[in-house]
Design a protein that fits this description.
single chain; mainly beta; three-stranded antiparallel beta sheet; 6 strands
Length: 71
């Protein structure tokens, strides 16, 4: 969730199951937008949103990553 509790960020499996994509859901309108769709196979877990940066662990390699989100 964002700091206002109006946006939800979630990792959702791609249709072809080749990894996750990151979506943003506006909880007031329920509109969904894909905001990050990596070309490589990334499985996001342990996600943490701080300011406009999303931190996560890729369960494929257990490394820590970050993504700067659009405002």
């Amino acid at each position: 969730f964002d700091s206002d509790g109006k946006l939800l960020y979630a990792a959702v499996p791609k249709a072809d199951n080749t990894g996750d994509r990151l979506i943003k859901v506006d909880l007031t309108t329920l509109k969904q937008d894909v905001i990050y769709e990596p070309q490589q196979d990334i499985r996001m877990k342990d996600m943490l949103l701080w300011s406009n940066t999303l931190y996560f662990v890729n369960s494929r390699d257990n490394k820590f990553y970050s993504i700067t989100l659009p405002l």
